[in-house]
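anyone seen this seq b4? input:
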Amino acid sequence: MAKLTILIDMDQVLVDFTGGVCRMYGICAERLDYHRETKREWEILKPLEATLRENGKIAHHKPYGLNQFWADIHAEGQNFWTSLEPLPHFTELLDLVTNHPITEEWHVASSPSRESSSYSGKVAWLKSKLGNDFDRFVLTPHKHLFAGAGRLLIDDRPSNLTKFCDKGGIGILFPSEGSVLVNVYQLGQTVQYLEKQLNQLHKSFNF
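predicted toks r here
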């Protein structure tokens, strides 16, 4: 029976990164989602900028871009990362992956920012939620380095999945408010969707 080593993304798969950004700026997540949907723009930056300007958080004449976005997060230090909330499906998702017959083992694979506080914050978050002995994680923006036969990446960023699959791995796009599968996310069916994808893989491997 074929089994897979599964790598699970962190932000917007296990962790509510977007919610943390909204709390940091003091804005409503529903308005951010509104701008995402009306603009059909799933990456966070442009909808966030529209929400910030709408709420008077930045002046209309003041530029705002990726550098400012990360500078604001980095100014929060490690606390930004450790204070993030697990997504509502956190436990259910990990239970599914842990107990699914296709799983050989699973690890968390997350892309940190360039600041060391992101690395330490993500590790502290994982250990606070999964126990101090938890060590099945890797922090790198280069997830494709771990691709290969028998490796599966669950991620909400298509670009990560493309690189991973190009290196011989398997990818599943996870539904989030920042992905093209936003409707699945809004219906609260993310885990059901993932289970269906895992079942299809299991069936194809054991035909």
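Residues 190-205 form the longest helix (16 residues). The mean pLDDT is 92. kinda curious what u guys think
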